[in-house]
């Protein structure tokens, strides 16, 4: 495919912010891909809706235009919907909006944005064929509105469990497949027409041209799935929104456990996000990676016990790496073989849950570097 670099681009972009009610941080990394096609949005306090917030991750494919435009304009399309505007104009409380009102505004916001971007691409006539997933959460004083279109994912961790997760829209899912077949398409190798790996997305207009079908009946649909979850401020710990570059290599539960273990070490959310992204790369992710982490007052807190445990684990890990490296005499040391060797051992206690030794690659690297050159053949 030629879509990968020789070496991953590992520099990360971060944002952070917060209010009394919650804090957030973001991390994104290009990784092995030739282009960075992810975008995201993070807004605490919406225009005319100071009590509401909005977060979203967009994973672009075949280009970044749709993902980028969506990250800038999806929110406007939802907020300018008459259901929201009625409340603004009447000076009513947003609490009085029903869930159905909010869902209608979000859904139509998605569909309107999709129409708008199609017009723009037609006007530009630049042959842009890109598309994008979208996973978002609107947070009101009492509720979370999880919104998903595609195969990025969001989940809520409550009381150390994954309480809610969005479902990925894959072409092989029975309902998705039914729609695709009804629109005259096919599903092969789990892809729409053997090509696109996601069955709902913004953009992707070449899959939205069946004249006898409406906008949500096409091979690829921009229709978001929306789930309302009541907030539970005593037990809600955090929300994660991330693209498949993160979820390809970790389950929801692994990621939740890993994040909890990192938050027990320090309260720097940027650091937590970056360590998820680095660990995902080390676990073998070849995709662009973007993650947003939102934490609530009940989120895990750093403890001395967890810090001590981590320090002892690192000490043991270093000792094991020294032992392995010093035994290698005749052949050049190989980092990936070393990582596999370490991953297969069970004598290093308290490696981070959900990450294992791959979460500690920097520790392994530091020791490894002391040996490289000592054993490698000359000139290599
Ligand atoms: Mn992706």
Can you put this structure into words, describing what you see?
The protein has 380 residues and is of the alpha+beta class. The chain has helices spanning 65-79, 82-90, 99-124, 174-182, 244-247, 252-263, 269-282, 304-327, 335-344, 361-371; strands at 4-18, 23-33, 38-46, 49-61, 131-132, 134-139, 143-149, 153-158, 161-165, 187-188, 191-192, 202-203, 225-230, 236-242, 289-295. Helix content is 35%, strand content 26%. The longest helix has 26 residues, at 99-124. Manganese (II) ion is lined by residues 59, 243-245, 287-288.
Q: Which descriptors apply to this entry?
A:
380 residues, alpha+beta, Phosphatase 2c, domain 1, Arc Repressor Mutant, subunit A, 2 domains, 7-stranded antiparallel β-sheet, 6-stranded antiparallel β-sheet, 35% helix, disordered C terminus, binds manganese (II) ion
What would you say about this model in short?
The protein has 380 residues and is α+β, with helices and mostly antiparallel strands. It contains 10 helices and 15 strands.
- What is the N-to-C order of secondary-structure elements (H for helix, E for strand)? EEEEHHHEEEEEHEEEEEHHHEHHH
> What fraction of the residues are assigned to beta strands by DSSP?
25-35%
Q: What structural category do the secondary elements indicate?
A: alpha+beta
- Per the CATH scheme, the topology name of the largest domain is Phosphatase 2c, domain 1
* Cα-to-Cα separation, first versus last residue: 29 Å
Q: What is the CATH architecture descriptor of the largest domain?
A: 4-Layer Sandwich
Can you tell me the CATH class of the largest domain?
Answer: Alpha Beta
User: What ligands can be seen in this structure?
Assistant: manganese (II) ion
Uncertain stretches: 376-380
From the alpha-carbon coordinates, what is the Rg to the nearest angstrom? 23 Å
Shape descriptor reads: globular
Helix percentage:
25-40%
